[in-house]
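Tutorial handout. Part one gives the primary structure; part two gives the three-dimensional structure as tokens.
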Amino acid sequence: MLMIGPYRMGFELAPREGKTRLRVWIDYNLPSGFPGRWLGRLLGTVYADWCVTRMVKDSASAASFKTV
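Part two.
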């Protein structure tokens, strides 16, 4: 990947007030090379946010969750 280096994605489900709370995250490191590191600083957060948002929306539509 050009914008992020090694990464780890995950999710957590927990009961909350009779419902289920979904927490999704992505931890990443910037690439080591100059072009990748520069792109990572510029676009890495945007890309990570897009990935997490996509995971939440896909989960909500698959399980009929309501997003908060």
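Part three, for discussion. The longest helix spans residues 34-63. The beta strands are 7-16, 19-28.
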